[in-house]
């Protein structure tokens, strides 16, 4: 499942540069995660890097975008093929 940034976000800007898929961007009031690009770092790292660096623990799983590890891996492969 992809991740989501909650309104507890303090706009500290540490998550955006950590995302290997470019899924995180500045929204109107807080950072947002594009569920079409979020693979929870599957294919890149063992754990989601945005969650690792977030100082306020405001990046939970997005219940609106439930995906298995296999689906996340397939999304990663599709994203990498599009970059090539």
Structure characterization notes:
Helix content is 24%, strand content 7%. It has a single domain (16-83), classed as Alpha-Beta Plaits (2-Layer Sandwich), CATH 3.30.70. The protein is an alpha+beta fold. 24% of the residues are buried. The longest helix has 15 residues, at 69-83. It has helices at residues 49-53, 69-83, and strands at residues 24-26, 31-33. The chain contains 2 helices and 2 strands. Residues 1-29, 31-64 form the 4Fe-4S ferredoxin-type domain. Keywords: 4Fe-4S, Electron transport, Iron, Iron-sulfur, Metal-binding, Repeat, Transport. It holds the Pfam family Fer4. This is 4Fe-4S ferredoxin iron-sulfur binding domain protein. GO terms for molecular function: 4 iron, 4 sulfur cluster binding; metal ion binding.
Count every beta strand, where a strand is a DSSP E run of 2 or more residues.
Answer: 2
Q: Kindly give the count of domains.
A: 1
Counted by DSSP, the helix tally is: 2
Major sheet: arrangement of strands: 1-2
What is the 3D form? globular
The CATH topology assignment is: Alpha-Beta Plaits
N-to-C SSE string, H for helix and E for strand: EEHH
- Average of the residue pLDDT scores: 96
Biggest sheet, in brief? 2 strands, antiparallel
Which class of secondary structure composition applies to the elements? alpha+beta
Low-confidence stretches: none
Q: Could you tell me how far the N terminus lies from the C terminus, measured between alpha carbons in angstroms? A: 25 Å
InterPro entries: 4Fe4S_Fe-S-bd (IPR017896), 4Fe4S_Fe_S_CS (IPR017900), PSI_iron-sulfur_center (IPR050157), YfhL-like (IPR047927)
Domain 4Fe-4S ferredoxin-type: 1-29, 31-64
Protein name: 4Fe-4S ferredoxin iron-sulfur binding domain protein
Keywords: 4Fe-4S, Electron transport, Iron, Iron-sulfur, Metal-binding, Repeat, Transport
């Amino acid at each position: 499942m992809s991740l989501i940034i909650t309104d507890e976000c303090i706009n500290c800007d540490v998550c955006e540069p950590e995302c290997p898929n470019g899924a995180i961007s500045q929204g109107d009031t807080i950072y947002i995660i594009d569920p079409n690009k979020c693979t929870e770092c599957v294919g890149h790292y063992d754990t989601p890097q945005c969650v690792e660096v977030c100082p306020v623990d405001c990046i939970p799983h997005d219940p609106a975008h439930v995906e298995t590890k296999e689906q996340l891996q397939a999304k990663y492969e599709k994203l990498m093929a599009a970059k090539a």
